[in-house]
Design goal:
Keywords: Membrane, Transmembrane, Transmembrane helix, Transport. It is found in: Membrane. Belongs to the major facilitator superfamily. By secondary structure, this protein is mainly α. It contains 23 helices and two strands.
Length: about 500
């Protein structure tokens, strides 16, 4: 009876007759191919741009100190400005991602980071520089949405491994930054026009700001997350998104074999008013059945991020003091702990009427590159074995291992020992923080995912600010306290990971 019907009519009738398909099943039908590698490249490159943006200030502080006549207090404020902006922004961008879209939040936040970074590069007044760094930090904090955006395009079989590759891009940014700084900052050109001054560090900041803007423009051509679209009840747009990915993966215009999706039980409608919606999203998360997971992940992020920034921002200072000690005391001086060397540095080098020196020692660039390279093995091992061993295993190992490395810093007596332990600490703690974003994507459903990841990041930035205060207060007199705090926080974080449910056991979309 149907022999005379054209084949496309038969296919159309078959498709219309299909029952609604669950979104996870539809994502499985999309397949895994070139689109996913491309979106990993874009999101990973954005993550590298974030690493560059966040840590570039560590090279700006010493190279711009003479232009702004910065004291140690001024340097501390400049270092903390980005953290304050990130602390404020992390909370807000999570709500924007859950209410307006993952892609929307990423484009807006990364554009903000790039624009204010460019403005900061030509700042001639210290308060303007501080404001621009604060706003840049506010923008770059939106990058936590990257994990939600990327993970919602990938089926459950590949998701954990796929998200773990993001750490490799962060490591790439950490390695690339000192190379760019080493190439640009030592240049001696000087452009003056009236009160306007432009030097090598200004050019360095401009170069560091460009990746955020370029990659935000590339994001415009990518689709919104299908899980976000369906959570908002946008059925047709979700189908269009899946068709787009399907065509890209299969390099053809073959018809996507799904026409109807099962809508979620509760459509997440946009709230009236920004602040009202922000409040409702936060309360909704911490009154839902996921509140225990949310609290635990926030505590872990607080402890791990406090420890990471507390010591990584301290490494250049430690290396500088060890170099001074080894040059001053060529022979053995019976120093048994790092803290004794730190105290001697505080007492002895009292040079007055010294001309302002904004040169960065060449060994600083080399050591930071070495620390970045040391992070490559962990960045490769984790995605290769995560499906076999699980996220929780690597989280526990990374936090306990970095905690032990932090404890051993108390006993170091040379620059080499400092470099080795610093590399171990950076490699393990950095991958641990990245994996916390991965596990949050796995444990929270679509309607809570962006807010949960961002609130965890907010607690982390509070910890980073606290860590800077602790180091500033105790580094000269009682440097054992920052080491003890860092070590304790990491060990506690590792133990708390064991209380989280195993990924894949919650049946979350």
């Amino acid at each position: 009876m149907n022999k005379n019907k054209p084949k496309d009519v038969e296919d159309s009738a078959f498709l219309v007759a299909q029952p609604p398909v669950h979104l996870d099943e539809a994502i499985e039908m999309v397949g895994f191919g070139s689109f996913h590698y491309y979106i990993l490249f874009i999101c990973g490159s954005l993550f590298a741009a974030v690493a560059i943006s966040v840590t570039s200030v560590s090279f700006v502080v010493p190279s711009a100190q003479c232009d702004f006549q910065m004291t140690s207090v001024h340097k501390g404020i400049l270092n903390g400005a980005s953290m304050i902006g990130m602390f404020t922004g992390s909370f807000i961008w999570g709500y924007v991602a859950d209410s307006r879209g993952r892609r929307y939040a990423l484009i807006l936040s990364m554009t903000m980071d790039g624009v204010f970074s460019i403005i900061s590069s030509v700042s001639q007044i210290y308060p303007v520089l501080i404001f621009c760094r604060l706003m840049s930090g506010f923008g770059v904090s939106g990058a936590t949405v990257l994990y939600s955006y990327l993970g919602e395009f990938v089926n459950t079989k590949y998701r954990e491994k796929f998200l773990c590759w993001m750490e490799m891009f962060w490591t790439g940014g950490i390695i690339l930054l000192p190379c760019v700084a080493w190439l640009i900052i030592p240049q001696t050109f000087r452009i003056e026009y009236g009160f306007f001054l432009f030097r090598s560090w200004n050019l360095f900041v401009i170069i560091c700001s460009l990746p955020s803007i370029i990659l935000a423009c590339l994001l415009v051509r990518l689709p919104e997350s299908p899980k976000f679209l369906l959570a908002k009840g946008k059925h047709d747009e979700t189908i269009d998104c899946l068709k787009y990915v399907y065509r890209w993966n299969h390099k053809a215009d073959n018809k996507f074999p799904v026409t109807t999706l099962m809508l979620p039980d509760c459509i997440n409608k946009q709230s009236n008013g920004f602040f009202n919606g922000l409040y409702e999203s936060t309360v909704g998360l911490f009154t839902s059945k996921y509140k225990f997971i949310a609290i635990i992940t926030c505590v872990i992020q607080f402890g791990a991020t406090t420890s990471y920034y507390m010591l990584t921002l301290w490494f250049p200072e430690l290396m500088n003091r060890f170099r001074w000690y080894e040059k001053t005391y060529v022979g053995p001086k019976n120093m048994t702990t790092m803290c004794e060397i730190v105290s001697i540095f505080k007492i002895e080098p009292e040079v007055t009427h010294q001309k302002c020196n904004d040169d960065i020692d060449e060994s600083v660039y080399i050591n930071i590159v070495i620390i970045g390279i040391a992070c490559i093995p962990t960045s490769l091992i984790v995605p290769l074995f995560v499906n076999r061993l699980g996220l929780r295993f690597f989280l526990v190992v990374s936090f306990l291992g970095s905690g032990l490395s932090a404890a051993c810093l108390y006993f170091i007596t040379s620059t080499l020992e400092n470099l080795v332990l610093s590399s171990m600490f950076a490699a393990l703690s950095s991958v641990g923080i990245s994996l916390m974003y991965c596990i949050a994507v796995e444990l929270f459903p679509t309607e809570y995912r962006g807010m949960a990841v961002s609130i965890g990041s907010t607690f982390g930035k509070v910890g980073a600010l606290m860590g800077n205060v602790i180091v500033g207060v105790f580094i000269d007199e009682l440097c054992a306290i920052p080491i003890l705090v860092s070590c304790s926080f990491l060990i506690i974080s590792g133990l708390l990971v064991l209380t989280l449910p195993k990924t894949g056991r919650t049946n979350i979309q």
